[in-house]
From TrEMBL:
Gene: LOC110208092
NCBIfam families: 2A1704
An example Gene Ontology molecular-function term: dipeptide transmembrane transporter activity
Protein name, per record: Solute carrier family 15 member 2
Function text: Proton-coupled amino-acid transporter that transports oligopeptides of 2 to 4 amino acids with a preference for dipeptides. Transports neutral and anionic dipeptides with a proton to peptide stoichiometry of 2:1 or 3:1. In kidney, involved in the absorption of circulating di- and tripeptides from the glomerular filtrate. Can also transport beta-lactam antibiotics, such as the aminocephalosporin cefadroxil, and other antiviral and anticancer drugs. Transports the dipeptide-like aminopeptidase inhibitor bestatin. Also able to transport carnosine.
Keywords from the UniProt entry: Cell membrane, Cytoplasmic vesicle, Glycoprotein, Immunity, Innate immunity, Membrane, Peptide transport, Phosphoprotein, Protein transport, Symport, Transmembrane, Transmembrane helix, Transport
Family: Belongs to the major facilitator superfamily. Proton-dependent oligopeptide transporter (POT/PTR) (TC 2.A.17) family.
Catalytic reactions of this protein: glycyl-L-glutamate(out) + 3 H(+)(out) = glycyl-L-glutamate(in) + 3 H(+)(in); L-alanyl-L-alanine(out) + 2 H(+)(out) = L-alanyl-L-alanine(in) + 2 H(+)(in); carnosine(out) + 2 H(+)(out) = carnosine(in) + 2 H(+)(in); glycyl-L-leucine(out) + 2 H(+)(out) = glycyl-L-leucine(in) + 2 H(+)(in)
Cell location: Apical cell membrane; Cytoplasmic vesicle, Phagosome membrane; Membrane
Biological source species: Phascolarctos cinereus
GO biological process, one term: antibacterial innate immune response
Pfam hit, one: PTR2
Length: 740
């Protein structure tokens, strides 16, 4: 019956009193004496331990934990994957990282439209989770070295990231709302607690994944290097688990049908108002008070009023993307900064991409600290800390965080080994003879480059800088050993480091020129090469997947990169003997040259010298900038969400949520543009972002000063808060009954 269907569509909780409900039932009943229709029997809901919490929310919370683990775990190692697996530049890696992040915040619009207009929340989550899983599978395959070449890895990675962005963004606006749908209206208190648990699951998943995934990448070796396939595969398996858990609760869920998407309606209303205004700009139609009033020909007045309230808040959103441009660089620029720092904290050794764990950890600490401590204390001091002021303070804190990051970057550059410039080379002497050797240059303007004799096995990381007259130049080295003098000629090329290895035998000494590493190693790894002074080839096993062979009689190996760590028992083998070498600690960013020697009194041993010294700046110096940026996030993000929800009309909450996510997407696009167009060094880029946010903060503060907030008592009347299709059905029925 049409009358019964109309009654079922009505949300009875929108009426202010029971008397109003009874009045409507009396009006729509076909007979005055008939009792009000009874509600259909409710499906018995599974409860948790007899409480008012539906059992179905347990499946939703576990699903969210696994999904967030999947997303943040994959994202934690993404920049380093671009940099060291795909071998992209830092700027390209940063740009693609933020392009992916931006796409993840554009796709929620698609998910919201699908859920509200077509599939409903349950099927939207289910179908897009399948897309999500497929993206993880393809992304993991793209990290397996034996699957195709570089082009195939790039294509698989991009396709996988696109599907992941579609999946994670598409389900983002649905999961929390679907969880709220599981509660009865009279259980609002329990529903509020559910959202707290839901938020805890998000941060717990993020916290654990950002800590664990870098360990899977760095501590596990596969295919002869970092195991990116495992680092992407484990989050993929967690997403499979998230999908399975969510599907298992299918029969327990309440599944509200799609009811139409307000985002689409608002967009159409705004578009019609603009197009109608442009169409009539030269006509004699009287001007209207507000530009949205030009939509009155097609849309109801109440919708126009609500869109006006919405646009007032959206106007304040204009400066917000700049904040997200800074906040989201924790996973890109700040991670790249960490690769040039020393992760040894004494009690724990952090991988460069593992330090991101500070953000979710500090969020969990700061939210109760601000709500229960700082905000009440500020209020006691007589300071009215409004939402606008909190958000502006968050912007200032984020700006200070980037100023700190710039300071740390400058200090890292000061402590890092200098890279040879144009027409420059750095040269050092490694004396592997049994006595000291005096080295001089016969055809160089400064004959005292090496003023002191070089002692045998003298450990030094000092390189002497030499200036060339051309891009490459030949030099004659004179070696004085005992009472003999030997001259050897070597060609040096600009922008390189060299080691002149002096070897001794019964007939005297000779030299070998070896090109070294120009800069510190990538990704915080250690690099090592070997010189074999024995008369037999030596095979070394450095780790499960890293082995090499060094030729006899001063054979020199290429560099091999290893995880930072202690290597006390490196297995070695010659054609007639097995032995082990103690290499000691191979530290972050360092490059080592290790000579395998045979001493009559100590036997076979390793003599180690640093070609490039380890990273000097401790990763602990990133802690202040993480504290500052997290405090900024709590003051800006949490407050901004609360402010938006309070200021939006009841029917416009979802529109504001979509707009809020779009500001995050635009913020990532800003980083992408700066990374591709800016020619600034890193510390200067940090300063640029810091200054831009301060300017934006000033603009936002001025806009906020003139903003008049909506008061809680400014509520709409009953008819205005009801959905339009329900109002129309009720109005028709009331009219019909009145005529009767």
């Amino acid at each position: 019956m049409p009358e019964e269907r109309a009654i079922e569509e009505l949300d009875m909780n929108t009426f202010p009193t029971n008397e109003s409900k009874e009045t409507l039932f009396a009006l729509v009943s076909p007979k005055e004496e008939l009792p009000r229709p009874s509600s259909p029997p409710k499906k018995t809901a599974w409860k948790i331990c007899g409480s008012n919490y539906p059992l179905s929310i347990a499946f939703i919370v576990v699903n969210e934990f696994c999904e967030r683990f999947s997303y943040y775990g994959m994202k934690a190692v993404l920049t380093l994957y671009f940099l060291y697996f795909l071998h992209w530049s830092e700027d390209t890696s940063t740009s693609v990282y933020h392009a992916f992040s931006s796409l993840c915040y554009f796709t929620p619009l698609l998910g919201a439209v699908m859920a509200d207009s077509w599939l409903g929340k349950f099927r939207t989550i289910l179908y897009l989770s399948l897309v999500y899983v497929l993206g993880h599978v393809i992304k993991s395959l793209g990290a397996v070295p034996v699957v195709g070449g570089h082009l195939m890895h790039t294509v698989l990675s991009m396709v996988g990231l696109f599907l992941i962005a579609l999946g994670t963004g598409g389900i983002k606006p649905c999961v929390a709302a679907f969880g709220g749908d599981q509660f009865e209206e009279e259980h609002a208190k329990e529903r509020s607690r559910f959202f707290s648990v839901f938020y805890l699951a998000i941060n717990a998943g993020s916290l654990i994944s950002v800590f664990v995934t870098p360990m899977l990448r760095g501590d596990v070796q596969c295919f002869g290097g970092d195991c990116y396939a495992l680092a992407f595969g484990v989050p993929g398996m967690l997403m499979v688990l998230a999908l399975v858990v969510f599907a298992l609760g299918s029969k327990m869920y309440k599944k509200p049908p799609p009811e139409g998407n307000i985002v689409v309606e608002v967009s159409k209303c705004i578009w019609f108002a603009i197009s109608n205004r442009l169409k009539n700009r030269s006509s004699e139609i009287p001007k209207r008070e507000h530009w949205l009033d030009w939509a009155e020909e097609k849309y109801p007045k109440q919708l126009i009023l609500e869109v006006k309230a919405l646009t007032r808040v959206l106007f304040l959103y204009i400066p917000l993307p700049m904040f997200w441009a800074l906040l989201d660089q924790q996973g890109s620029r700040w991670t790249l900064q960490a690769t040039r720092m020393n992760g040894n904290m004494g009690f724990f050794v952090f991988q460069p991409d593992q330090i991101q764990v500070l953000n979710p950890l500090l969020v969990l600490i700061f939210i109760p600290m601000f709500d229960l401590g700082i905000y009440p204390l500020v209020k006691m001091c007589g300071i009215n800390l409004t939402s606008i002021r909190k958000m502006a303070t968050g912007m200032i804190l984020a700006s200070l965080a980037f100023a700190i990051a710039a300071t740390v970057e400058i200090k890292i550059n000061e402590l890092s080994p200098h890279t040879p410039g144009g027409k420059e080379v750095y040269l050092r002497i490694l004396n592997l003879a049994d006595d000291e050797v005096k080295v001089s240059l016969k055809n160089y303007h400064n004959n005292s480059v090496f003023p002191e004799p070089i002692k045998p096995f003298q450990k030094t990381t000092d390189h002497s800088k030499m200036l060339l007259t051309t891009e490459s130049q030949s030099f004659h080295f004179q070696l004085q050993y005992h009472n003999r003098s030997v001259t050897s000629e070597h060609m040096l090329e600009e922008k390189n480091r060299y080691s002149l290895v002096i070897r001794g035998d019964q007939s005297g000494v000779s030299s070998i020129l070896v090109k070294g590493m120009a800069t510190s190693t990538a990704n915080g790894m250690a690099a090592v090469r070997f010189i074999n002074t024995l008369d037999k080839d030596v095979n070394l096993t450095l780790s499960r997947d890293v082995s090499l062979s060094v030729g006899e009689d001063y054979g020199i190996s290429d560099y091999k990169t290893l995880e930072r760590g202690k290597y006390h028992h490196v297995q070695c083998r010659t054609e007639d003997k097995d032995f082990s070498l103690d290499l000691g600690l191979l530290d972050f960013g360092a490059a080592y040259v290790i000579a395998i020697t045979n001493s009559s009194d100590q036997g076979l041993q390793a003599w180690k010298t640093e070609d490039i010294s380890p990273n000097q700046m401790s990763i602990a110096w990133q802690l202040p900038q993480y504290i500052m940026i997290t405090a900024a996030e709590v003051m800006f993000s949490v407050t901004g969400l609360e402010f938006s929800y309070a200021q939006a009309p009841l029917s416009m909450k979802s529109v504001l949520q979509a707009a809020w996510l779009l500001t995050v997407a635009i913020g990532n696009i800003i980083v992408l543009i700066v990374a591709q167009t800016s020619a600034l060094v890193q510390w200067a880029e940090f300063i640029l972002f810091s200054c831009l946010l301060l300017i934006v903060c000033l603009i936002f503060s001025i806009m906020g000063y003139f903003y008049i907030p909506i008061k809680p008592e400014d509520a709409y009347n009953l008819e205005d808060t009801m959905p339009s299709h329900i109002k129309e059905n009720a109005r028709n029925l009331v009219t019909k009954k009145t005529k009767l």
